[in-house]
Amino acid sequence: MLDQIDKLEKAATRTLRRMAPAPRQTVSQWADSERRLSPEASAEAGCWNTGKAAYLGGIMDAINNPTIEHKQHYITSLGAGTVTKYFYKVGQVPKTD
Predict the structure, then answer these.
(1) Counting CB atoms within 10 angstroms of each CB, which of 26, 44, 53, 69 has the fewest?
(2) pTM exceeds 0.70
């Protein structure tokens, strides 16, 4: 009986961990930790590094900056036979109120 309770507790713990919200991150932080570049579509395969394209860091982080007003546009680019959709924001006007 105690063995079954232990198994149930472990299962509940695993389930609750999976349901926990993701940590709050900027887009560039998420890209550095999660984005992977394939060898077929990139000259430098492996983990994404915002530091190698620092100008993109500000653009990515503007997406979740609450002081910037966003207008949403979708841009589709073709590269190395792969279609990648980038969520692109334009019209970044600082809010005055």
Answers:
(1) 44
(2) no
